[in-house]
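Table S2 (continued). Query chain:
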Amino acid sequence: MPNATILIVDDEQLIRWSLTSRLKDEGYRILEAGTAADALSLQREGVDLVLLDIGLPDASGLSVLKQIKESDPDTLVIMLTGQTGVQTAVEAMKNGAFHYANKPFDLDEVVLLVEKALETTHLRREVRTLRARQAQPYGPESIVGESAPIVAVRAMLQKIGVSPATTVLLTGESGTGKDLAAKVIHYSSSRAAKPFMNITCSALPETLLESELFGHERGAFTGADRMKRGLLESADGGTVFLDEIGEMVPLLQAKLLRFLEEKSFKRVGGAADIKVDVRVIAATNRSLQDEVKKGRFREDLFYRLNVMAVPLPPLRDRRDDVPRLLRHYIDIFNLEFRKKIQGLSAGALKALQGYAWPGNVRELRNAVERAMLLTDDDQLSESHFSMLTASDAELSTGLGLPAGGINLEELERALVLQALERSGWNQTKAATLLGLNRDQIRYRIEKFKLEKAAPR
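Corresponding output:
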């Protein structure tokens, strides 16, 4: 665990010094205490691991161990003991200590013991986080904000969740939280215990998207060496979320319409009808009405999807929620990065509330994550968000359509390649830079046949 905080408790200054020097070299943050009182005071500030001497001048190590475990059962403790105190150390382990180290220490062995303890701490936290998410993964409170538009959206999502409506259409700009809204609907419904399956319609070629949705029979096409169930079949009883539905090709639009009307479909290459009970939630950042007028989207499918429509407001229309969202993501990344950033300066808050947020909540989240990764300060200031002002200025003054026009395909390819190179070909990071998800950037890597250049 990088940046882990270790508390060393021993009344012998030489022992504290030797442990501190070695563990600091390993990249850990070290706190020191020579008494039980000081140890308990420092432990309450939040530490990942305690190295605790059995014998302290003002209390026994066993007593301090008990108080640490009562304060935070997840804090691991390694007892420090002389050769004559092995039995006491074993007793301490029965009372919750992780392990013990004998004096005089082999510092290499202590480092290995510390690494094992911190790995255990990390795994425990992951398990606790996963259990909390499974217990209540996405309640209405997941949608942060108290502005009138977002309160109305939250109320509507709750009503839809408990309603029998089987089709929902989420609309709004990219980054407004349509994927989160879909999960709130699912987990607020009687379908919550069943699967939530999602797919981005623009992330896969037509043939693969059809197979992903409807499944295929063995031999249906080259490479189909076995039968495969599609998302609709796998989600029986639950929810299927179709993101970027406006990108779906006409052939698949017709097949989706048939499914919505008849609640049945055929696998690719199959003859038998398969009936399932699923709720379909579709999302788009396009105007489907305009797509219908242009002949790119079926009018009958639009009306079939538009039974329950929920427009997600852009962040610029609910600026009062910006401080809450900033605090929300600061809290999240404090836990994730093991930092203790207290908040924002008044200047930073004013600047961020006045910013247009063209990328909406996703852009705000990314901005906070980037700022917190790059700072060791205890408060975020305007300088930590200078990239927003710079990008805003570039968009307003630096971009313009050349007189001779541009090739959008070449521009898209260049931007994807630049994002990949800037992120060291980490697809997740590159996708974040472009406001895409991982499936979408994988599709573009295949589409443009991009490959990482071999090192020279």
